[in-house]
Design brief:
The chain is of the alpha/beta class and 261 residues long. Helices cover 42% and strands 14% of the residues. It has a single domain, classed as Rossmann fold, CATH 3.40.50.
Amino acid sequence: MESKLLAQETAFVTGAASGIGRGIAIALAREGARVVLSDIDAQRGEETAAALRREGCDAIFMAADLAAPDGAETLLKGSLDKFGTPSIFVHAASPRRLEADNILNVSADTWDRMLSVNVRAGFLLARGIARRMMANGVHGRMLFVTSLHADSPRNLPHYSASKAGQTMVVKELAKALGPHGIRVNAIAPGAVPGGGFDASGAGIERLTRCTSLRRLGTPEEIAGMALALLADRFSAYVTGTTVVVDGGLSLHNWIEPGELY
């Protein structure tokens, strides 16, 4: 009988209380990894970890506000002290984006929070974990959940800028850490309800029509590709890249000029 993909491994997942981050954490746990889940939403995070434990998985939750000045450092120290060096790190945390926060209205505080969580905290966590991986000879894997809007502006400048920043962080990490046997990649989802994306808003019908597969995606579908990128059995020679999982949305001009302005 074939063993589980991630048996004997430890995974650390941010943004794990809902949406894509939750889907990835569940997928990793079900493939045998011991999973440390983290999120600002303590109630939903604890519920997710408890549900995984009821399935027989090894899962623990740690609350954290990654927008706080010391949020990443505090979470990093607590998780490493308690659970040791992970072999897998996934940064899926991102503040909820609101359509009202467009280029004319987004506040400095909203801008700072988005960039702090997505770019600053993601980098600090990845670097801290990488240092421990290198010190312990762990050939680890890292994954950032980015967005199609790293390349396509959508009148949410703080969100698009943060995702573009993540894309370059992934490349910088992959280049620097590759010689140490550490792979770093990104996954760019399409329209997937949950977490930061509200599928009840206006324009969802048009968004669905602009997706080649004519439907929205699911966290489980993104998690499947994430699992493949994090498992050496499938992707041992893949690093520094972004894999798009969008049902064909990026093949279409789904945001027409001026539509959201």
